[in-house]
# Entry
Amino acid sequence: MWRRARQSIRRYVRPGAGDASGAAATAKGADDATLKVLKDIRWELQEQRKYFENFRKVIAADVLTDVARFTDEHQLGFEQTLEKIAAERVSFARFGDGEFTTMLRPEFNLRFQPWSAELAADLRAVLTLDGYDSDRLMLGFPYPYRNVHWSGVWLDIWSEVRPLLDTSISYGNSHVSRPVFFQRTGNRGVELWRNVWDSREICIVTGENSRFTLEPALFDNVKSSRFVHSTPVNAYADLPRLMQELEKEDPDQLYLISLGPTGTLLAALLSRMGRWAIDIGHISDSWANVFAGGQWPESKGVKAK
# Structure
């Protein structure tokens, strides 16, 4: 393909062009040849993409079917998840690809959370409810996407995740604070979240200089709010200090946490202390992405200081 492109272009790029009109004709011919080759390349790439997409679907079919079967049988829907959180004041610890991969892959590092054996073990304890009360803590399981990214995730880890899941409990949907939730539920989803903290005092736990904001469309109905900060990078290493600080906080507050995998763990730890805690992630960025044309949550940078 590239050899043909060079040959086509060379035919129109010869030294010693005669006059201005000849040079113009030569330039136009080169442009036309380049455009044709680029169109051919685009077509070929599109065909290759179709091939690889079909190949991916065949390879991932059994795994994705098993994941979908699990969510059909054991996962609450978007609205059911939030209704349970609000009605039962149950804490919520969300597992997504970052938490699962941190738990299972020692070579995996998030840009804001380096891997550690201790964090992996603590996440496993939460997922298996080892030392946690399922009446106080609801676990979040991802929305069953079938796209390229999640196909790769499930192909890699599903055989190891599946045996750790408890089929006697109902899992919430981890993506209730992600753009897909607002895309699917619209203003109804906003109202469901607002109902969780309506007229309540809330404590937001997030990294210092975090991009987390109290978007008025979501939060202007809270009674009061305050922030408690951890480190912007490697919050897990800061967890002992952070827990000491949170122990001094009003236990009747609703704790909203945005700390990556450490946030999943922290929601579980606070539930064990009898506090109501929700791992809320990038909810404001997700709202902005859907309702205000904002960036995709992960496209924003991480501030180290």
About this structure: The chain has twelve helices and seven strands.
